[in-house]
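Our platform keeps sequence and structure together, in a single record for each protein. Such a record has a labelled line for the sequence and another for the backbone structure tokens. Nothing more is needed to write down the fold, since each code stands for a local backbone conformation. For reference, a complete record is included directly beneath this paragraph:
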Amino acid sequence: MGRIHVGTENSASITLHYEDHGIGAPVVLISAFPLTGQSWEKQLRALQDAGYRVIAYDRRGFGKSSQPGVGYDYDTFAHDLDILLTQLDLRDAMLVGHGMGTGEVTRYLATHGSARVRKAVMLAPLPPFLLRTADNAEGVRQEVFDAIMRAIVADRPAFMKVLLDDCFNVDVLGAPRVSEQDMQLFWTVAVSASARGTLDCVQTWLTDFRQDLPRIDLPALIVQGDQDRIFPIHVTGKRLPALIKDAQLVVIEGGPHAVHWTHAEEVNRAMLDFLGQ
């Protein structure tokens, strides 16, 4: 367990909490909204058993990291990731992002380059561009995001229950893929996050990554469930191979947004095969 200083807000230091386990080539895990490094439980053992050093961190505003009132945008998130990679002096790293965490992967590689990174994995990706606009007819209407932000302001704990149920497709999957206790765990993690950060991150989802993606100059793996209700696959994952020079897409049948938890065996197999190539 460690902490890294990434900035300041007024007189307070902004730090990121991270876990760093194992030896071997480094794999950096970047979690989805509204979760933390805890959400990678089903990948940590598989990666360590395969001989990797695994670093999982909590983005600012979430988990055990600082909860500042500023910095909930992808330029800042990528800057935070750059500080982590630099201070830990990671080389030939593999970046693995889930959901919102795929935005960090994309913006980091587009702005900071791949000198420290060898491969990238995007699970249930956010890019290329989630918002429907005149030149992005596949996107999601602005009213959907406006409703989410209103719900967070009105009753954040209640909204987190609804969101997480849809992340895991609880109504369809249920036990044994996801239990009531799983959902209790993730709800507790979600409501412990910064209220400001939780709200601001929704606006951050509307970042346009279409100019970033062609700058990714390393092999990338995209893994997504075909039943992702949060970032629908026709808006996100299926569009990425045409925008990233060296990308492959693996579709998990019946997989929800939290596919790394509900279909961990399939995800781990695809990821380990790719990382080992």
User: Anything to note?
Assistant: The chain has one domain: 2-275. The domain at 2-275 is CATH 3.40.50.1820 (Rossmann fold). The chain has a mean pLDDT of 97.
